[in-house]
């Protein structure tokens, strides 16, 4: 066996393996398994390269913990800036998929620290592309465009693979900016270039991007055709994560085409996936489709159940976005802390020199020492003050909704729970109002997201002055809001809700540059004897809100036990015909 292994040029085989990973993944995995039998006959560096490739193959198949085990093991073997950078980058990809954003930023910081030590232009270009990929996964849009453009600027005409990848991330950048026409053109250019130059996997990713761009442009038939072609390509590579993503997009596209059977087929593929963090956004999308589909079929009870699941995954996505933001800010803060520590070490060194000089120059040098000491302490005080200001700013940002300026879901619910405990401990009442803007998607679709944002801010501005200082006003979803009224009974809640409904309906939309009507549907629920937390009140108010929408919208509905009846879906209008119900 040693003699046979010695006849193999492992460096050449590993180079071929690296090329196959971008052109023929199944063949690359087969060759990888063949090489594992000769693992003990390789040098440490060759073993490290093989483990990097093995970790990459696990990422493609969605086995992220296995990928981490191999990549972390490779770190001690490669001891080379180029391949060490690859190991760190793929580790970050696996951590992101596992939603461990803190460790993802740690290894990304290690990757950034290696770039300046990379002299090879080809390796540096590949490093920029990996960073673009990681920042795309973290949702940090600006960095995606920056690093993709840097990589493209370092590419020569014969660097076809890297040009392909850079073009892909510049296309993704346009998609994340929601410039869908331009994104489609960029993806099409990328697809044509990569397909003609023999990089099928990247061309399939671009094909999916073309399909998603068409979906967002509401050109659903074109979107379906492109996504089906992308799905077939992904299946040939067994790229499971992307296969799941395409099924989610196809469910959405078929629903928009009212081809409900096809929509259900692709949605069920996604709902059958395990409850892992990497599938959160996909499941959110398909449960939204299933809720809409059942609502179309007048199956309101089932639609409500799917809507609850959609909201559950929406909350997970919200929490994940918050975790990414906090991890990103923490990473930046840690980097600033390290810089401050270096500055402090330098200051201590200066102080030591000054102290030695004092012994020789007595009075004059003593004054210099005091000046340096005071200056250093003053500078440290400024840094600490700035750090505290930044910390308070980030805490405010984490609690407030960036668009409307009111509390976000997490902060609103936390404050509401505290007020609920105080009110119930003193024997007071408590009331929850949930409201949702009617046909809000039509405003976005007809006049653009800018007008939709204007409408959300205008609704909040119209109601803020009407909300008492002790009440809680929060945005809990896209166009859904909550008003929590401590020490107020259900009658007061109905009165407040009706006043809010009227104020929203009276909004003059001409200042937005368009003429349209804004209305909202309200659900109201008061405190019951067996309520121990806000959750039951939110649930009942949500059911009342759903009833208000089913009853024609632009209405206020108070929760009653009739809403729990099985006949609600077919006989709802008769039961809530009276405004007092």
How does the SSE layout of this entry go?
Blueprint: H1 2-6, H2 10-23, H3 25-36, H4 44-60, H5 64-78, H6 81-97, H7 101-115, H8 121-137, H9 141-153, H10 160-176, H11 180-196, H12 200-216, H13 220-237, H14 240-256, H15 260-271, H16 280-296, H17 300-399, H18 409-425, E1 430-437, H19 440-447, H20 449-464, E2 472-475, E3 480-486, H21 490-505, E4 520-526, H22 534-550, E5 556-558, H23 568-575
Parallel strand pairs: 4-5
Antiparallel strand pairs: 1-3, 1-4, 2-3
Helix pairs in contact: 2-3, 2-4, 3-4, 4-5, 4-6, 5-6, 6-7, 6-8, 7-8, 7-17, 8-9, 8-10, 9-10, 10-11, 10-12, 11-12, 12-13, 12-14, 13-14, 14-15, 14-16, 15-16, 16-17, 19-20
State the gist of this model.
Its EC number is 2.7.7.65. The protein is mainly alpha-helical.
Structure description:
This protein has a 5-stranded mixed β-sheet with strand order 2-3-1-4-5, sandwiched between helices. 73% of the residues lie in helices and 5% in strands. The chain has 581 residues and is mostly helical. The longest helix is centred in the middle third of the chain and has 100 residues, at 300-399. It is built from 23 helices and 5 strands.
